[in-house]
Design a protein that fits this description.
With 269 residues, this protein is α+β, with helices and mostly antiparallel strands. Strand 6 and strand 7 form a beta hairpin.
């Protein structure tokens, strides 16, 4: 039993040396069928039990064949039956006796169906829960990182696929349904607006001088509209409208006859 305890101690991974006893268990098949609250302390005091200290006050009382009531008059390590539930459960308390009325509890041991275990203390419980929690959190984070994808148009997104051989199936999208195409996603519009704003602040607009314009200097609007005003203005009495003169054409030609007809119609008006 001592050799197995040493092997368990060497293979245990913990920052607390007391945690090595949490990995141990002990039982005696001969005693198990006859175990009761009257003989459970004698069963716990077997030399092969790794949880029992042979130098405790119980061993001294046992060698002197005295009653266990004498333990309160002694000082040192002692074991006491704290709870009994025949025939399945027994709880034994290890404590440091200081005075007949004062004792400091050091550990608890429970006997379940004849097998002795050490009950974990609060530090061991919290340490074990924190280690398990951190392990599963890191595992979940590593698993999620494998599904992260990035695309310049859509940004970050998840691409979760069922594992190989899994019965989980994703519902496919309707192939006949066409989503409306947008000019750009929210991710694109937001980033483009930010880039354009930064460039505008860095390179503000400066108007080009008229002399350097690629199409040459341009006049004012009033100058451009002035010819139109002269055309639409009615003629004044001081300046009568000028008549259009046409060069004489050869007599006898069709064009000459047409011209004479045009002048006759014009004079009749």
């Amino acid at each position: 039993m001592n050799a197995s305890k040493q092997n368990n101690v060497s293979s245990a991974v913990s920052l607390n040396p007391k945690d090595t006893d949490l990995l141990l268990s002990w039982s005696d098949a001969i005693w198990v069928p006859h175990l009761t609250s009257a003989n459970v302390m004698e069963y716990f005091a077997q030399p092969s039990n790794p949880f029992y200290d042979p130098q405790c006050n119980n061993e001294i009382i046992r060698m002197q064949r005295q009653s266990l009531d004498q333990l309160k008059n002694m000082v040192g390590i002692e074991y006491e039956l704290a709870h009994a539930q025949d025939p399945i459960l027994y709880i034994i308390k290890r404590q440091q006796r200081i005075s007949p009325t004062d004792a400091i509890t050091l550990a608890h041991y429970y006997i379940l169906a004849g097998t002795v275990y050490q009950a974990p203390d609060l530090w061991s419980v919290i340490n074990s829960r924190l280690l398990n929690t951190s392990h599963f959190l890191f595992t979940a984070q590593a698993e999620l990182n494998s599904f992260v994808r990035f695309h310049p148009a859509n940004g970050y997104h998840w691409e979760i696929k069922p594992p190989t051989g899994s019965k989980i199936s994703f519902v496919p999208m309707d192939a006949t349904r066409k989503e409306p195409e947008e000019a750009g996603t929210q991710f694109q519009r937001k980033n483009v607006d930010g880039i354009l704003g930064a460039l505008t602040q860095r390179f503000p607009f400066k108007p080009m001088p008229a002399s350097q314009h690629p199409f040459g200097p341009r006049g004012t609007v009033a100058a451009e509209q002035q010819p139109a005003a002269n055309v639409s203005a009615p003629p004044t009495s001081a300046q009568p409208p000028s008549e259009t003169t046409v060069a004489p054409l050869p007599a006898g030609s069709d064009r000459a006859q047409n011209h004479q007809l045009f002048n006759a119609v014009k004079n009749s008006r």
